[in-house]
Design a protein that fits this description.
Elements lengths: L1 H29 L17 E5 L2 E5 L2 H11 L3 E7 L6 E2 L5 E4 L18 H6 L7 E4 L2 H11 L2 E3 L1 H9 L6
Antiparallel strand pairs: 1-2, 1-3, 3-4, 5-6, 5-7
This protein binds zinc ion.
The site of zinc ion (ZN) has 8 residues, from loops.
């Protein structure tokens, strides 16, 4: 009987220990780098390097960078994007983008949205809907069929901020 209890205790210890290690690992992954605009941790599948007003920033996703450009009335240039499926870095001009899907890469740290007015806080999220990059048009299509959204080229994706719709 005592032996059974100690086995159970040991099992519990292993489970708790394992959870602690996993928690530690995920924490490390998350806190590696934060978005230069919204301070959220950068998702490995969606991070981009964007140049706005001549300055380069590591950004959580393309949508966050576009939002920044619109808010600051500055054109956005993407330097590097991440393939959502593989996490590989892609040349932005050769990537395909899905805009307006149901997937939000960075739902955590919502409390950091303190640069917005309170009412907007609940309805507006600068990163939502997310914009994700794919290495091929087919990959983007597959994602859009599954998660919603529209497949766009780099030029189409940035048209809202660089295409003259921004009031100067
Ligand atoms: Zn961001």
């Amino acid at each position: 009987m005592a032996r059974k209890i100690s086995y159970a205790a040991l099992g519990l210890l292993v489970i708790v220990g394992g959870l602690l290690v996993l928690g530690e690992l995920s924490l490390r992954q998350r806190s590696e780098e934060a978005c230069g605009f919204c301070a959220r941790h950068i998702n490995r599948q969606a991070g981009v390097i964007a140049e706005i007003d001549g300055k380069r920033h590591h950004v959580c996703c393309a949508h966050c960078a576009v939002t920044e450009g619109i808010q600051e009335h500055k054109p956005v240039k993407l330097i590097e994007v991440t393939d959502y499926n593989s996490g590989r870095k892609l040349d932005p001009s050769h990537a395909w983008y899905v805009d307006g899907s149901r997937i939000v890469a960075c739902t955590h740290d919502m409390t950091r949205m303190n640069d917005m007015k309170r009412i907007e806080n609940t309805t507006f999220d600068r990163c939502s809907p997310g914009t994700f990059a794919f290495s091929t048009h087919d990959d983007a299509d597959v994602f859009a069929v599954k998660n919603g959204g529209v497949v766009r080229s780099l030029g189409e994706m940035l048209a809202g901020v660089n295409g003259g719709e921004v009031k100067q």
